[in-house]
Design goal:
By secondary structure, the protein is mainly alpha-helical. It has helices at 2-42, 48-52, 66-97, 104-115, 119-138, 146-170, 174-182, 187-198, 200-215, 219-224, 242-250, 255-293. It is globular and about 75 Å long.
């Protein structure tokens, strides 16, 4: 009887392993097919001029996307400079100080809701909160800017980083906190020097996911940054980005611009891969450094 029950459990375990392996293989295959298709259709339009030139205005020879690549990097840097510190601070509060204040529950609920808000809603909100007031102060018709676009992207990043940070900090053993407090450290010192470094690798993964989410957004930038075909590094003006340029070219009727749109998608994926790899390397080195000190 016991042997029959054991055999049934073994067969069930083997069957579930096969199902999980098949699902994993299917997902990886689809990912490789999509990536391969993007490389096949977009690599032909990528050359030195793609990264060096700006749009010419001629639909037969549309030029390159240097302005959009630089604009995307600047927008992501500005959004991360605002969204990452605020998101991490909110996550630290929800994990370490939530029991001391009554509004931790509502704050956590709001963060969960904001995580699922459609990006076009964020774009309209950014338009009303940043573009319209600045237009009134400066007496301009409409004051689209890179700052407004970065603020909209940061608004998307904050709840993602906050909830990820909270969950990762909760995984840090309580003995770490108790040991630090027992040695005479304050709670703030414990959080900054013990808890946060212990969860740095996991928190960096959440930051990476937030960056990947906002890097592919177009709707918020349509309402805030507007886009530009000029090379500019001044975020106070209408600002270019890869997603906006891809949207403009992909929805247009001109074949040469559509080819550049595919190339832009490939470059955007490569940029996300580079950011992902950089954060992974930093997290791995940080973990190795901590193990070396221990």
């Amino acid at each position: 009887m016991a042997s029959a029950r054991f055999e049934t459990r073994r067969l069930t375990s083997d069957a579930m392993f096969v199902v999980c392996a098949a699902c994993t293989l299917l997902i990886v295959t689809l990912l490789l097919l999509v990536s391969g298709y993007l490389v096949w259709i977009g690599i032909g339009s990528i050359d030195l001029s793609f990264f060096r030139d700006v749009p010419t205005g001629d639909v037969a020879t549309p030029g390159g996307m240097r302005h959009a690549i630089e604009g995307t990097v600047i927008l992501l840097a500005l959004a991360a400079a605002v969204g990452v510190p605020l998101g991490v601070a909110a996550g630290v509060y929800l994990s370490e100080y939530s029991h001391e204040w009554f509004f931790a529950g509502p704050l956590r609920f709001i963060a969960d809701v904001l995580t699922g808000v459609p990006s076009i809603v964020v774009g309209i909100l950014g338009y009303e909160l940043f573009v319209v007031p600045v237009s009134r102060w400066t007496s301009n018709s409409v004051s689209f800017s890179g700052y407004a676009g970065a603020a909209a992207l940061a608004f998307i990043m904050i709840p993602i980083v906050a909830r990820t940070t909270e969950e990762m900090l909760r995984l840090v053993p309580k003995t770490y906190r108790e040991g630090s407090l027992a040695l005479g450290a304050s709670k703030a010192q414990t959080v900054l020097r013990v808890v946060l470094p212990s969860a740095f690798g996991s928190i960096s993964t959440g930051i990476m996911l937030a960056l990947a989410r906002v890097a592919g957004e177009t709707a918020p930038l349509l309402f805030t940054a507007l886009g530009s075909r000029l090379l500019t590094r001044d975020p106070s003006e209408p600002f270019p980005s890869l997603t906006l340029q891809i949207y403009t070219y992909a929805t247009g009727p001109y074949p040469e611009q559509k080819k550049l749109a595919w190339a832009g998608i490939l470059v955007l994926l490569a940029l996300l891969f580079a950011v992902n790899l950089l954060i992974r390397v930093v997290a791995a080195r940080h973990a190795a450094t901590r193990l070396g000190k221990v």
